[in-house]
Specification:
One of its GO terms (molecular function) is magnesium ion transmembrane transporter activity. It contains seven helices and eleven strands. The protein is an alpha+beta fold. The chain has a single domain, classed as Magnesium transport protein CorA, transmembrane region (Methane Monooxygenase Hydroxylase, Chain G, domain 1, Up-down Bundle), CATH 1.20.58.340. About 25% of the residues are buried.
Length: about 375
């Protein structure tokens, strides 16, 4: 491995052996054996971008959510040019792995293929795949199974199924943890709701990438059907088998996309439920505060009239003659005014708040509003 690039060469036994050669030594026009090249985008951007057509540049240079393209070297009559009898194709996928609401990682795996129909040789670039070369090689086709170039795309898509499944179940476990956390709303962490919105963003991205991946596989199926007429050397059985395999992968992605949408609905329901539980808790606290304020108001109402009367007449009920404070005989007037005034105040308050207000019955009219004919 040099500069993040590993090259494997196909041997006669059907095995792939690692080579110490450099891409700079690769001559596509004189290819003797098929090659598989594992690389990281940054390695290809720095030194080897001349291997790829301009349209492929966004796959290794830009953040995209998926791509597919294929091209054959044809003349003006749509016949394959014999002196440059090769074809290129690529497919790209996007996956988001989420460890927790704040920690996540994007990967953008892609496969780029140069295929020579006459010799059945090929150069395969596998870029930014989460699996290591040792894990990927047993999942890829052998030289014997490469009479159809789209076999490689189907195999590459098959390796992506496990990654999409891993991404989905990682999100599902996070959503399930939030569902368990709200069982006791009084113990919710202050970051509970911000985390919910972060999780929702991740689920939206999951829906998006799964939908694009499904569309990519559908495009592969359509393009493979168009290529049957160009490469008559490939048997119909090979085309049909690979088409069914691509459709199977597309069906798997569709199932994951449906479950991801269901997960988004679960999360949306969880957000609504969380808000409702917190609102109920705040409502209960508000009721308690209202009861306390009502108690304070009633107590104040009981003492307010007496305070008012004492302030008004207090100086007239005491005699300070001869240097002594003596209560006069008219002190009973204070009680005679305070008690009725207090009761009257409470009665008015009770009538104002508790006496039912009669509303006129709809459609019922008072008879006295109409003039009586003599």
């Amino acid at each position: 491995m040099s500069d993040g690039i590993t090259i494997y060469q196909e041997e006669g036994t059907g095995q792939w052996l690692e080579q110490r050669a450099s891409l700079l030594d690769l001559n596509i026009e004189r290819l003797e054996k098929s090659l598989i090249i594992f690389a990281k985008p940054e390695s290809l951007r720095l030194q080897y971008s001349h291997f790829f057509p301009e349209a492929f540049a966004p796959v290794i240079c830009t953040d995209i959510n998926g791509s597919f393209f294929c091209d054959d070297v044809l003349d003006d009559n749509d016949n394959l040019i014999k002196h440059a009898n090769w074809a290129v194709s690529w497919s790209c996928f996007k996956i988001k792995f989420v460890d927790n609401p704040r920690i996540y990682n994007w990967v953008q795996p892609a496969i780029f293929m140069i295929w020579f129909p006459d010799t059945l040789k090929h150069v395969i670039f596998i870029i930014d795949h989460p699996l290591s070369p040792g894990e990927l090689l047993p999942l890829l086709p052998t030289q014997r199974a490469t009479r159809n170039p789209y076999t490689w795309h189907a195999a590459f898509a098959g390796t992506m199924m496990g990654q999409y499944d891993k991404s989905f179940w990682g999100l599902r476990n996070i959503v399930r943890d939030t569902e368990k956390a709200r069982d006791n709303p009084n113990d919710l962490d202050p970051g509970f709701f911000p985390n919910l919105h972060d999780i929702a963003r991740h689920v939206f991205h999951s829906n998006e990438t799964l939908e694009i991946a499904e569309h990519t596989l559908q495009s592969l199926v359509k393009e493979q059907c168009r290529c049957r007429e160009l490469y008559s050397s490939v048997s119909k059985g090979d085309w049909l088998h690979n088409e069914r395999l691509l459709l199977f992968r597309a069906k798997q992605l569709h199932s994951l996309k449906t479950r991801s949408r269901s997960l988004a609905e679960r999360l949306h329901n969880e957000i609504n439920l969380g808000f409702n539980l917190v609102s109920q808790r705040f409502g209960s606290d508000a009721k308690s505060d209202n009861a306390m304020m009502k108690t304070v108001a009633i107590v104040s109402m009981v003492y307010l009239p007496g305070t008012f009367v004492s302030g008004l007449f207090g100086t007239n009920f005491f005699d300070y003659s001869d240097g002594k404070e003596v209560m006069t005989d008219s002190f009973w007037i204070y009680w005679a005014i305070t008690i009725p005034l207090t009761l009257l105040t409470m009665l008015i308050w009770a009538c104002w708040h508790y006496y039912p207000k009669k509303k006129p019955t709809p459609g019922k009219k008072r008879m006295d509003t109409f003039p009586v004919k003599p």
